[in-house]
Amino acid sequence: MKKNLIAVAIAGVLAVPFAAQADIAFSGDARARYNTKTPDGGDAAALTDSRVRLGFVAKDGDVASVHYRGYMSTGTHGDGEPAYATDWAFVKANLGPVTVSAGEMLANWGTKLLYWDVRPKRVMISGKAGGHWMGITFDKSTETNNKDTDVPADGKPNPFTGNDADDKQAIKLLVKGKNYGLLHSMIEDGAGDKSSTVTDVYYMGAAGDIKYNVEFVTEGGDAEGTSLGANMMMPMGGMTLSAALINFADGGAGFDADYLDGMFMGCDAGNVCPSIGDSGDGAMTIAASLGMGFGDGMKGHLSFASVAGDGANEGTGIELAVFKSLSKKTNVKAFFGTVSQDDDSNNTHTGMGAAINTKF
Questions:
Q1: Taking Cα atoms as reference points, which of 145, 138, 168, 146 lies closest to residue 155?
Q2: Closest CA to 147 of 106, 184, 183
Q3: pLDDT in tens, 114-166
Q4: CB atoms within 10 A of CB 335
Q5: What is the pTM of this model?
Q6: Is 130 left (phi over 0), alpha (psi -120 to 50) or beta?
Q7: Residues 63, 98: Cα–Cα separation, whole Å
Q8: Opening angle at CA 29, ends 83 and 84, nearest 5
Q9: 224: closest CA among 156, 304, 139?
C-alpha cells in the first residue's frame, strides 16, 4: 500500500510542471463480475469482484510525457478486502533520435507467449533506424509486483512471469520490425547466486485470409528449457476459427495465460480453465475456438482446450461465451464451461459467470 501511494505521489509531482502548458487526457473503466465454480461432488463457490481503473497522460508537445494508471479492486475470488495498486507510473522524454523512459511500466512483448501484463521497474533507452525499433532495458522485478505471484518450487529465476524467490534484475536487448521481434534477456536474482538467459523470437504473418503467428523461446543457465507457441485465425463464412498449439520441452517454464485469453473468458475470471498458463516440463496444449456473430451487437465463441504430458495439469475444458455491446463503451459477457482434470484427482469442475464492463 505504501509503495502504491509513493508511485501516485511521484506521478503527481512529475505532472505538476506540465499542468500549465501540457495536454492532459484522463481515462478509466469499471468492471463487475459474478462467477460460480462447482467441483465434482462439491458445493458451488461464488466468486465476485469489482474493479475501477483511473489514469492520465500528460504531454508537453512531443518532448516529454507522464503516464499513470492505478486501480481499486474488491472481492477478487471471494476476498472482501479492497486492494489498491498501480498499473504503471512512468515518464518519457524524446531526446532527438533517442527516447528515454523510466518508472514502473507495462512490459508486453510479442504474441503473449512470454512476457505479457508484467510490470517491472524499468529504465529503457530506445530508438528507430531503418524501419526497425531497437531498445535496451534495465529491469528490476520483485516477487510481488507482477500479477502472477507463483514462485517456482525450485527457487530458480522464472523469466516467463518475472517472479522469483528473490528480487530479480535483468538487462534486455530488443529489436522489432513490422512482423517480427527478437529479445535477449540476461537475468540475475537479488542474491546474485542464480542467473539465466532467455532468447525469444516471434513472427506474425498472413497467407491469404489466414493470419498466423509463431513464437519460440529458449532458456539457459539456471532455468533451462524451450517453449514453442503458434496460433492462427481464419474466416469460415460468418464465423472465425482460431487455433493454438503450445509445446514445452526440457523443462520449459510455461507460458503466459494471456496467450489464450481471446479464446477463454473463464481464464480471466480464474474459473473454468484446464490449468492453461501453468503447464510445465514436456506439456503440450492444443486449443481451438469458433467465433460467431449474431448481429445487433452480439457475438460469441465456443472454445476447447486440452493439456497433455504433465501429470499435474493434464485435462480438457470447453466453454461457451456470449458478448453483447450495450453501447460503444459498455458491454456485458456471460459464459458457461466445464473442465475435466486427468491427474490423480480426476476432478470435474463446472462454472458459469457474467460481467459488465464500461469505459469513461
A1: 168
A2: 106
A3: 777 778 889 999 999 988 999 999 988 764 443 333 333 333 334 434 333 45
A4: 25
A5: 0.79
A6: left
A7: 11
A8: 15
A9: 156
